[in-house]
Amino acid sequence: MKSLQNTRTVTTGTNAEHARLHNRRVILEAIRLGGRLTRADLTRLTSLTAQTVSNIVAELEQEGMLLVHAAEKIGRGQPPVPLSINPDGGYALGFHVAQHSIIGVMLDLLGNTRAQVTLAVNYPSFDQALPLILETVTAFRRQLPRGRFLGVGVALPGPFSVEGMTAVGPTAMSGWDEADIALRLQQAVGLPVLLENDATAATMGERLHGIASDLQHFVHLFIGSGLGAGLYLGNRLYSGHWHNAGEIGHMTVVPGGKACHCGNHGCLERYISIAALLEHLGQRADQDISAWDMREPRFTAGVQAWLDEAVPALRQAINILESLLDPQTILISGFLPAAILGRLVDSLEPLSRSISSRGDREYPRLQLGTAGPDAVALGAAALMILAEISPDYEALLKPE
Ligand SMILES: [Zn+2]
Asked: 128 CA to middle of ligand 1, Å?
């Protein structure tokens, strides 16, 4: 039997520098959420001392992260000065590296898109993608020569570093599974770098730019060449111990079903993925379908055959996700052509009964995402901004 001492880890203490950075994020987040706040508002909302608030606000003002508005004259004494986030106080770049495209975006501190680029590629290895990313970073930075750049978020298909799952099958991209990828990117770009899987980044994209802005608990199914889910639980992203939470592509949904490259049978992404659709269309799994018109008669039978298999498998996956996580809703998006995705969602009704079948729901059980094709890149950049300005995400940027 384990001794009591071994059953929990000791909560670590904090030092002054860590506390200062944490408090700085607390203040930035309060202003971001509040819109315009005075120092007195900040003292009240954050429970920090007036002196601490004043010191941090002075530092943020000096860095250009805050806008100082005209004082509001109310009564006697020193009039309060409202503060807001300066959108030009910092910029973050986000990249979505996928099998057939690299999408890059530049966001300002308030999450507004300031630049976007889409590059056509074909299963880029890390060494092939790196110069394209560097060129784009340079081009974006040239647009704002005096801008303060917080860092670069890079999102790509997962799972990461899982033996026998990461680099196998038609959805895998080679050369992205080395342990030092983030470090190499960071050294090449000269800015902090965050690596995230595409479904998790897309989840943040929907939270900040799409349909999920009011949601606190939701699951986001992202259909690319393979399939992943992003988990947003208790008002924050949940990424798991090894950063692979939500990698449900190899969840068994059809025991004894189709053989998968991972060695198992009946994996979810053998039914729900672009690779699975291509198989039914008699095409190689590495084809880029983005420009295909799926209404063409040559596709009709294949799409229907795919739907016939995909729908029961996805119903089962939704039932499992709802039963495990009790989400407000499940979002679905990805690289499937909109018409096909719409047909898939329509065909899923009626969903299997679960704890989510209840009359007092605010949102449908399943909804289409609305952040659009840039959702992953937007989310990757947004994570970089949140790491700088939100205490919930400070762990993303670990101190060196
Ligand atoms: Zn599998």
From this structure: 27
